[in-house]
Write a structure and sequence with these properties.
Largest sheet: 8 strands, mixed
Distance between the termini: 49 Å
Keywords: Transferase
Protein name: Glycosyl transferase
Strand order of the largest sheet: 1-8-6-7-5-2-3-4
Number of helices: 15
Structural class: alpha/beta
Shape: globular
Helix content: 40-55%
Radius of gyration: 21 Å
CATH topology: Spore Coat Polysaccharide Biosynthesis Protein SpsA, Chain A
GO molecular function, one term: transferase activity
InterPro entries: Nucleotide-diphossugar_trans
CATH architecture: Alpha-Beta Complex
Order of helices and strands: EHEHEHEHHEHEHHEHHEHHHHH
CATH class: Alpha Beta
Number of strands: 8
CATH superfamily: Spore Coat Polysaccharide Biosynthesis Protein SpsA, Chain A
Mean pLDDT: 92
C-alpha cells in the first residue's frame, strides 16, 4: 500500500509515482526562467577522491534548470584546491561553477570578520555558499544535498525544486526525506538519538510548538533541502553538525506551516556509513551526536536560566534512556519483519555513546551554558551590516 499519510502539522509530499523525467525537466525549466536555481554542495576535499562526487557532478551537468553550482569546500591545501577546481570543472562541463575554499586565506578572513576565529564544518560551508549567492544578488532557489550519495539520480533535484518552483505549491522551504537502509538499518543518530530525545523533551516539558514541529519531520537530519534564497539567507545556523536541527528550528520561527513541506525523495540513498566496532565507540559519531544534542537542547531551552536548564536536561536524560530502549526494540522488530541484519550489540553501543554525550552535556551546561559554538548571524544580516563584505566574498570565490 502506498503511503499517503499526512501529518497534522506539516505538509508531506509523498513519492507515489514516477513522472516522465523529460517532461518534468521541461516544466521546471519553464517555471524557473525568472527564478534561477543554484545547487549548493558542501563538501570535504576528500570527496574529490571518492566515486560519489564525480558521478553527481557529471549528472548535474546535464540538468537544464540548474543555473549554477557552488561547491563550498574545506579540508584542502592550496595545491589540492587547484586540482579540485580543475577536476570539478571537468566533471561539470559547461555548467557555471564557483569553488569556495573555506579554509583558504581569503575565506578564512571572511569567516573571521563574521564570527571571530573560524570554526570549520558543514554549517560553515553552507553559510558561505548562501552568503556568496546573496552577495552576487541571487534571488531564486537554492538546492543543497550531501556529496557522498553513491546511487545518485537527478530526480532528487527535481523533487526538491518542484515544491519551491511551482506557482500553485509556492512553498519556501522543502526538506527531503528517504530511507537509510541496505542490508540493515542505518541513520542511527536520527533513529536512536533524535527521535527518542524529542519525545523525552516532550515528556518533561509537555506540549511545545517547536517540539511538535521537529517531531513532524520524518528525517530531520537529512542533508537535502531546497529553499527560496531570501528565506534561507535569514536563517542563523551553526558551523558544525547542529546545522540540520538549527535550520528546522529557523523554519519554525520564520515560516507559516503552509510555507514549508517535507518531500519523499523516493528511493534508498546509499551514503557512507560510520561503523561502530563491538565494544568501542567511534569518535566521529559521538562528536556528531554531541553537537546535534547540544543544538537541540539549546533550541528547546534557549529561554531557560542555566540552572533550570541543567535540572531539566537531567530529567530529559533519564527519559531518553527509557525511550531509546523502546526505540531499539521497535527497530529490531522492523528489521526482523523485513529480513534485515540487526546487530543489537552495535545498536546498544550507539545508544550508550549517545547517552554518554548527553551526560557530558548535562555536566558542562552549568559552566558552559547551552550556547551552540560558532552559531553564525544570518548571511543577509551580515551583508546589510557590512556591505564591503559583498565584494570580499565574491572575490574569494574561485
Amino acid at each position: 500500500m502506498a503511503d499517503f499519510y499526512q501529518h497534522s502539522r506539516l505538509p508531506t509530499l509523498h513519492h507515489l509515482a514516477t513522472p516522465d523525467a523529460n517532461a518534468r525537466e521541461a516544466e521546471l525549466v519553464e517555471m524557473t526562467r525568472e527564478r534561477p536555481v543554484a545547487l549548493l554542495l558542501p563538501a570535504l576535499h576528500t570527496e574529490v577522491t571518492r566515486p560519489a562526487l564525480p558521478s553527481i557532478l557529471r549528472q548535474v551537468s546535464e540538468v537544464p534548470y540548474i543555473s549554477e553550482v557552488v561547491l563550498s569546500m574545506n579540508g584542502m591545501t592550496e595545491a589540492q584546491m587547484h586540482a579540485a577546481r580543475e577536476k570539478c570543472r571537468e566533471w561539470l562541463g559547461d555548467k557555471p561553477m564557483s569553488l569556495l575554499w573555506n579554509d583558504g586565506p581569503q575565506f578564512e578572513a571572511v569567516h573571521h570578520r563574521v564570527n571571530g576565529a573560524h570554526s570549520p564544518g558543514k554549517g560553515a560551508n553552507i553559510w558561505a555558499g548562501i552568503a556568496y549567492l546573496r552577495a552576487k544578488g541571487h534571488q531564486g532557489i537554492v538546492i543543497s544535498h550531501d556529496t557522498d550519495i553513491l546511487n545518485y539520480g537527478t530526480s532528487l533535484l527535481s523533487k526538491l525544486c518542484y515544491p519551491i518552483a511551482h506557482p500553485r505549491l509556492n512553498y519556501k522551504f522543502a526538506k527531503g526525506y528517504y530511507s537509510r537502509v541496505a542490508d540493515r538499518l542505518y541513520g542511527r543518530v536520527t533513529r536512536l538519538l533524535i527521535f527518542p530525545l524529542i519525545h523525552a523533551f516532550q515528556e518533561v516539558l509537555g506540549p511545545q510548538p517547536l517540539l511538535e514541529h521537529l517531531e513532524s519531520f520524518r528525517y530531520p537530519l537529512s542533508g537535502e533541502f531546497a529553499a527560496d534564497s531570501t528565506t534561507v539567507a535569514n536563517f542563523s545556523i551553526p558551523s558544525a553538525w547542529g546545522l540540520e536541527i538549527a535550520m528546522l528550528c529557523e523554519v519554525h520561527r520564520h515560516l507559516q506551516v503552509s510555507e514549508m513541506c517535507q518531500v519523499d525523495i523516493g528511493f534508498h540513498y546509499e551514503h557512507r556509513h560510520r561503523q561502530l566496532e563491538p565494544g568501542t565507540v567511534e569518535p566521529g559519531l559521538v562528536s556528531a551526536a554531541a553537537d546535534v544534542a547540544r543544538c537541540l537542547a539549546y533550541q528547546v531551552l534557549r529561554e531557560s536560566q542555566e540552572r533550570a536548564a541543567e535540572s531539566l536536561l537531567r530529567l530529559v536524560l533519564e527519559r531518553y534512556k527509557t525511550r531509546a530502549a523502546e526505540w531499539m526494540n521497535r527497530y529490531e522488530h522492523v528489521a526482523l519483519l523485513n529480513g534485515l541484519i540487526y546487530d543489537r550489540a552495535e545498536e546498544g553501543a550507539a545508544v550508550a555513546a549517545f547517552t554518554e554525550a548527553l551526560e557530558v552535556l548535562c555536566t558542562t551546561v552549568g559552566t558552559q551554558g547551552l550556547l551552540v559554538p560558532a552559531l553564525r548571524p544570518t548571511p543577509d544580516a551580515v551583508l546589510r551590516a557590512d556591505p564591503s563584505l559583498k565584494q570580499e566574498i565574491i572575490a574569494a570565490a574561485l
